Amino acid sequence: MDEERVHIRILIGIAAVLAALCIGYNVFFVPPICSPAAVVTTDTPSKTLSSAYNGKVHLNSSPVSQLESLKGVGSALAKRIIIYRQQHGGFHSVEELKNVKGVGEKLFAQIKDQIDL
């Protein structure tokens, strides 16, 4: 009977050590789940991935700031472009931009060489 109690005490001791190691590892070595670095986003007018590969402003991925960089496109029109994009699942052709209120033939002709999907 004494030998059985010794074995139980040894197993309980091992379990306690393993539990302490797991808790210590989680406290000191595992980073927090909601790290601020993983949540940071910006909407800057600098080059983003959407314009990096051909230098054009991409209608389906450019933020407001890039759309505003087009001559004749202000903040209100840029927001309408993004709303149209969200409501219609993106643009299917560059010419579809003319469906956005405020983009007429004249403005489209002026910016068509600067935009892409």
Structure description:
The chain has 2 domains: 2-36; 41-116, Orthogonal Bundle (DNA polymerase, domain 1), CATH 1.10.150.320. 47% of the residues lie in helices and 3% in strands. It has helices spanning 2-28, 49-52, 64-67, 75-87, 105-111, and strands at 57-58, 115-116. The chain has a two-stranded parallel ribbon. It is rod-shaped, with a radius of gyration of 29 Å.
Concise structural overview:
47% of the residues lie in helices and 3% in strands. With 117 residues, the chain is mainly alpha-helical. It is rod-shaped and about 95 Å long.
Overall 3D geometry? rod-shaped
CATH topology annotation of the largest domain? DNA polymerase, domain 1
**CATH architecture label name of the largest domain:** Orthogonal Bundle
Task: Summarize model confidence as the mean pLDDT.
Answer: 81
The H-and-E topology, N to C, reads as HHEHHHE
**In the CATH hierarchy, what is the superfamily of the largest domain?**
Photosystem II 12 kDa extrinsic protein
